[in-house]
Specification:
GO terms for molecular function: metal ion binding; mRNA 5'-diphosphatase activity; nuclease activity; nucleotide binding; RNA binding. It is found in: Nucleus. It is a single chain. The protein contains eight helices and 17 strands. It is an alpha+beta fold. Helix 3 packs across helix 6. It is globular, with a radius of gyration of 20 Å.
Length: about 350
Amino acid sequence: MVYRIKKSWDKDFPYFERPKAIGYYSIDSSRSICFDSSQLTYYKPPKNYEVNFNLNQGIESVKRKIKPTKHEKIDTFLQWIVNNIDKIRADPESGRSLQPNIVCFRGLLSRLIKTAYDEREGWIICAAKWKGTIYLMAFDTEAEKFEILNQTEKDLQFSSWGFKFEQYILTDEPNKSPDTSKPVDEREEFCCVFQSHLNDNKLLYAAEMDGVYSDKLLSDPLPIENLRFIELKTSRLVDNERQFSNLKKFKFIRWWSQSFLVGIDTILCGFRDDKGVVRRLENYRVADLPKISERFWSASVAMNFCDEFLNYVKKKLLQKFMIIRSINLKGFRTVTLS
């Protein structure tokens, strides 16, 4: 099957129910799931937006996430589902096990949303259907595997800069200042689980969250439905209009999709120089990003593609398992099944 770019997706924005957080879990340093808020961090608003954050501080002691050749599946998310089955159990008369008909990570949905405008990357998604619910999981393409196995020290450094930036902005307790002296541990995560509707598809997805707005120390069980989170990003300093155009074309669609899917309204970006020193902070309203970037991408087109793709998977998944490969050709989106 071949999708032509913007074939039928340039229409009204599809119905998307505001995401509702229904649960959470933590991932510790050993990459084990903990059904608590032990990895929750708090947003400490900066006093100044002209800063001097050295992202290389302690970089030699970074605890990296996984070995390059190891692929993490959705096991931890499935453990949360099993542990919280009463929250999402379907009506027995429906013939389904779970209420949602699509289960995946937020990152997979974000990747689908930007597919119509991504001329550089393909993807591989595996789909499995069990008791009426489709489980989606992304796998590395051959190009991604090659890139991972051939990462340079500079590549690893770029990756670590984002985690270090979070250390300058987030804290373990609301009344404490951020501690940038301890080594960054890229293996730890705090994740929320969300429910939403995209037209006829009821979605359940998990997403790693950066920091929560709260002036009080929170304890389990969290009032998860009422919490407000912030998204943190880093990017190179913008020196000219061409660089700003690239930011709008390539990064803003990813930033928007990631935040929109979890109901985040504000992104804080740390703009760094080439040496890894953040010089300036800037807030972006998530709702403003499509307007700022309208020359390069449309939120309606992006979301309609995602909706059409999910419907396509539902229609084609008559068997229990299939692999979908997407390859970008100029002007086309090619999707193959196996």
